[in-house]
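hey m, so remember when u said the tokens were messed up on ur end? i reran from scratch. heres the input so u can diff it against urs
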Amino acid sequence: METNQPNQNKINIELSEEVAEGIYSNLAIITHSRSEFIIDFVKMLPGIPKAKVKSRIILTPQHAKRLLKALQDNIRKFESMHGELKESDQDQMPYMFGPNAQA
């Protein structure tokens, strides 16, 4: 019996038009438990003290670590093409969201 191995590793991923539009976020709040990482993506507007979570992603700790490595790799590639990204003091949020949260 012959198998077509290249097709066995293929994943068919669908992207709806609504999801393809994306959601803008300028703040991520990250919390975790022993079994999961939760990332809440928030859009904050200047001068407005209230903001809503626009999207929540729940990951296993192993997937969170894979995401971290993928982001580091992509930032390294981006910086090699476009120069080093610099953080400015203006990018820092003056809000505290609890003991486990980070922006």
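this time it looks ok to me. Residues 94-99 have pLDDT under 50 and may be disordered. if urs says something different then somethings off w ur setup not the seq
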